[in-house]
Design brief:
The chain is globular. By secondary structure, the protein is α+β, with helices and mostly antiparallel strands.
Length: about 425
């Protein structure tokens, strides 16, 4: 891997990117052939960045360059280029802790806010696969390994207090990306905000009810405070099914530019929320009633397995790899100490589960009433059918957020989702 520092920032479109890559001997050799013959395609469909696929006679790479503004909105919303630096740091750390589950890094230029990574083929964005009702048998094992290892080994359970604080400091400057989360997830959907949107007119009444729901406002504010004030571990920060690339046999987590030290339930909740939304959206994609029943059953089973396997792996690491300053072994000696510590581990995981339930709800509501939406719902062509699917998801999410402690187990969540599968909401308009 090389790290370039040459030149001031400039946006590299096709011709400039070709010249830049041609000037890097290792990448030029990897791509092969004559640079003029390389195929360069801009494929970025996210909200923030340029993403190129570059293919030569011998191989291919993916190139990501941060823009100095939010791509979804334009130059009226400036954004620091330093996010590319934090993404590079996060990918580097994740590669150490969860090898094989993130793309390999090939080159990084901090001045250009540009990173070159391995080209993931034939992987596709998981969200697209879920819209097509595809099952992914490796997903549970891979994503739970990724989350358990990256979170445990960056937490106080594995690190000394000094190491943990150094980790927090390394990502503390990524506050502009955290601010986006704080506004778009925890604030804007619950007030009148210029960039909010929803399936109108059908969800107009539901949108208004969110703005008047003081119990919900208290619940989301508590979650926002936890997001801001609980640096439990290094998080991906945007771990949804649009940030995961998959095949039947492989999973790769991409795009950790929102990485920061925060509450672990935020990442776990993001994964569960996006699976639940895929399940609720499924009915809207049916051509004939019941044709996606097997897929929906698989998604809900996956929700259960993701939490259960994450908890199992995290607890295993705690029991076998704990060397941090939290819960010092010297305080829990002998059989009595071991039993008490194990009881505390279980209580810890229950608190983490409650956080996860709340954050999953927050992630769901923002994708229906906030700025950035999911194709799971957006690709439902009939807006009324889309609104029905969205309203079901919101009903579950509201309960999960306001009554999070009532959801004691993951089957409480999936059971509630199953009951709402055919619930018919009252729509506006």
């Amino acid at each position: 891997m090389t790290q370039g520092q040459a030149g001031d920032y400039r946006i590299l479109h096709e011709a400039a990117l070709r010249d830049y890559l041609a000037g890097l001997p290792e990448l030029k050799a990897l791509l092969g052939g004559v640079p003029a013959a390389w195929a360069i395609t801009e494929v970025g469909d996210g909200n923030l960045n340029l993403v190129f696929i570059v293919k030569g006679a011998r191989g291919g790479v993916a190139v990501k360059q941060a823009l100095p503004y939010v791509r979804l909105v334009g130059e009226s919303w400036p954004l620091p280029l330093s996010r590319a630096h934090y993404e590079f740091l996060a990918l580097s750390r994740q590669a150490e802790l969860a090898p094989g589950l993130v793309p390999a890094l090939l080159h990084h230029n901090e001045m250009l806010a540009l990173t070159v990574m391995e080209l993931l083929e034939p992987h596709i964005i998981m969200r697209k696969g879920l819209v097509a009702a595809t099952h992914y048998p490796r997903f549970v094992d891979d994503i739970t390994t990724f989350m358990a290892r990256t979170m445990f080994f960056t937490s106080d359970l594995a690190l000394s207090a000094a190491e943990k604080k150094e980790g927090i400091a390394a990502f503390a400057g990524n506050h502009a990306l955290c601010k986006i989360t704080e506004d778009l997830i925890f604030t804007d959907p619950y007030r009148i905000a210029e960039q909010n949107r929803w399936t109108t007119p059908y969800l107009d009444g539901l949108a208004a009810s969110l703005r008047d729901d003081m119990e919900l406002h208290v619940a989301i504010s508590r979650l926002k405070l936890k997001f801001m004030a609980s640096p439990e571990a290094l998080l991906h920060g945007d771990l949804h099914t649009g940030s995961i690339m998959v095949t039947d046999g492989e999973t790769r987590v991409i795009d950790p530019e929102f990485a920061f030290y925060g509450p672990m339930g935020f990442d776990v909740g993001a994964v569960l929320a996006n699976l639940l939304m895929a399940c609720f959206a499924s009915a809207g994609h049916e051509r004939t009633p019941g044709e996606r029943a097997a897929f929906e059953a698989w998604v809900l089973e996956t929700v259960e397995q993701v939490w259960n396997e994450f908890a199992r792996k995290f607890l295993h690491l705690w029991r076998s790899e704990a060397s941090g300053d939290a819960y010092p072994v010297s305080l829990f000696t002998g059989e009595k100490g071991a039993m008490r510590l194990e009881a505390e581990r279980q209580a810890y995981m229950q608190r983490l589960f409650t956080d996860t339930v709340g954050f999953a709800a927050a992630k769901t509501i923002r994708r229906i009433f906030g700025l950035a939406h999911n194709i799971d719902f957006e690709l439902i062509e009939d807006p009324k059918r889309r609104a029905v699917s969205e309203a079901r998801a919101v009903r579950l999410a509201r309960g999960m957020m306001v009554e999070a402690p009532a959801f004691r187990t993951i089957t409480d969540v999936t059971g509630s989702a199953r009951k709402l599968r055919d619930w018919q909401p009252e729509l506006s308009g």
